[in-house]
């Protein structure tokens, strides 16, 4: 039996993921985002998007041009999101370091998410480090979802044990 969570109280400058909408919302983000693999920064941007969904920390989508040449390698398989459509995957490659299927994109997302067509999200748990405005993110728990936890968001977050029915 799943117990409905008690949302944490957001402090000054914080957001509660329990105030995010369902269906999710897309919004631009003007902060600095970096992704590191193999001991180097493989992606960096000051222009990205956040997908905000009830109980989930934000998932960040970076423009393809934020990634260094050669770090994105097509990976097999696809998945379907009820909100965004069909995703395709990339391996991230930096020297000898390979993060298999660690990044994904929606080439032709549904109309509410049209702005992120071709933009790329990264599974923070599969790379060395991801940052938002210099803060190292904590991967969303559970290993399935791609949200990034920073001190700006409070939970509890989908993905922890017992959260399947949230």
Automatic annotation (TrEMBL):
Domain DUF427: residue ranges: 33-124
Gene3D superfamilies: Domain of unknown function (DUF427) (2.170.150.40)
Family annotation (InterPro entries): DUF427 (IPR007361), DUF427_sf (IPR038694)
Top-level division of the source organism's lineage: Bacteria
Region span, Disordered: 1-21
PANTHER family from the UniProt entry: DUF427 DOMAIN-CONTAINING PROTEIN (PTHR43058:SF1), SLR0655 PROTEIN (PTHR43058)
Full protein name: DUF427 domain-containing protein
